[in-house]
């Protein structure tokens, strides 16, 4: 039985390699390395790895598209390519869809939960940026026009939840993935959440 499982895992990994090209980890600062080492590790699900693929969105280069049903985020590149990342999304009660723009970006941001979240969960509180912060290594702040949507694309201190619908609407990524996306994304980039 164990040999069969190992064989299936190996075949799955080999087939994934045929369809997708892995994207190397971005370079990180010494602070990033130190803090990333403090975030709990999770067994990585190869389905939600970071891959260079043919662009399935048809959007302009520089656009971010989030497919909430499939739990993937696409960063559209030139040449009809995209980088695909696995994400955790909002559960049905809290999910947000629409078109926004990245109004600002932050490294290891502080987290101040919105009033609605504090009302639902009185235990949540302001948390300074760092490895224990729910926003993780980076955050992209989504605005509709000049109005903050209060939704973010951000890292996580719960990497085991990538691929699930568990957040209060934000798009969570593995910290190394959100660093990669942060480095690629310009302020005012278009974001489409479907």
UniProtKB/TrEMBL annotation:
Keywords: Cell shape, Cell wall biogenesis/degradation, Glycosyltransferase, Hydrolase, Peptidoglycan synthesis, Signal, Transferase. The keyword Oxidoreductase does not apply. Pfam families: YkuD (PF03734). It comes from the Bacteria. Pathway: Cell wall biogenesis; peptidoglycan biosynthesis. Residues 62-194 form the L,D-TPase catalytic domain. The keyword Endoplasmic reticulum does not apply. The active site is at 154 (proton donor/acceptor), 170 (nucleophile). One of its GO terms (molecular function) is peptidoglycan L,D-transpeptidase activity. Belongs to the YkuD family. This is L,D-transpeptidase-like protein.
